[in-house]
Amino acid sequence: MSSGETLPAAQAGTVESMDCLVTIAASSGGRRIEISGSGAARFRSAMENKIIQVLDSLGGPGDLSVTVQDNGALDIVLGARVEAAYLRFREAMLR
Known about the structure:
With 95 residues, the protein is α+β, with helices and mostly antiparallel strands. It has a single domain (9-94), classed as Ribosomal Protein S5, domain 2 (2-Layer Sandwich). The protein has helices at residues 40-57, 75-94; strands at residues 9-13, 20-26, 32-37, 64-70. The chain has a 4-stranded mixed beta sheet. Strand 1 and strand 2 form a beta hairpin. Helix 1 packs across helix 2 (75-94). It is globular, with a radius of gyration of 13 Å. The N and C termini lie close together (9 Å). The mean pLDDT is 93.
């Protein structure tokens, strides 16, 4: 990538009820996780653990920014959205 080119980001999910929108982008200075929405206050720790688990299982690098806008997604939905977003991100990085 040239120095003037922006780094890719990838998304998966929706902002519909019982879903979440996950955005993954390159980051400097370690993995950053931001969670907002209906489940953030009560389930932040469990959601962060799920995100880390999925990224680690996929061999995700430590320098990622993960943003989740939660609208009541179940654990399995969050995991699937993180996986899809990461795989899209990885594909975009290879281009």
